Amino acid sequence: MIIFKTQKELKTHLEALNKTIGFVPTMGALHLGHISLVQQAKKESEIVVCSIFVNPTQFNEINDFENYPVTHKQDIELLKNNACDILYLPESVKDVYLYEKKINIDLGTIATVMEGANRPGHFDGVVQVVSVLFEIVNPHKAFFGLKDFQQYCIIKKMVQELELNIEVIGCPIVREETGLAMSSRNALLSEAERKRALVIIETLQFLQKNTKPGNNSKLIDNCCLKLNKSSRLEYLTIADLETLQPTIFLEKNKEYRAFIVTRLGNVRLIDNIEIFA
Ligand code: PAF
After folding, report:
1. CATH, residue 195
2. pTM beyond 0.85, yes or no
3. Per-residue pLDDT, 100
């Protein structure tokens, strides 16, 4: 695996390769969820490029940014052992943002609900950094985990709006044996919090089994009560798969997704599951 610390060297190297590139952008603290993206990229491309960059512009809470786990040594080993060909590990924030770049695109209402409503500016930061990384790497395909389902939808929309020739591929959520969705933030949970966090997958699976065509507000309210007993619930939303607009009225034989964001101590966890009414 070759590690590049500057975008200039990386760009020059990639341009000379003339190979199909699969790109996996990450913020590091890698786990098996990220590795599944690298493996998928390997299957679908000649060269796998990964980036590790904790992007300051997408954090709306300074504590979250400052506490974000950094495990470069382990990450590099993991990537080497999983056939990543190239890693972009920028030496500074400046190396990513060489010049001021404002992305003026209309992401529409998919960006104003859930994470868009609860983390002001977050998606602007994600779109900014991913568009810069896409410009540097110029991949054929880019791989994103469906744990951040809304982010995946936003990136797809961004690619469409900017008319980029990049296929955005969403990969399944990878879970620990207990059902907890793998996340870099799990490393910040205490043992007790890790156990209490199982309420997330239990509730999602309960919703998956019990949602019915028609009004589901009672079911949703009960699930919120349960989540609030062992965590601090930010939102539980069932949303239309395409528009991401929240709904309590479900149509028969239509696919939706249920989303939960909740806090255990200082750790904000996010997860989702598909729902058929
Ligand atoms: O999902 C993430 O880890 C980040 O939001 C991403 C896509 C790497 C952009 O910083």
Report:
1. 3.30.1300.10
2. yes
3. 82
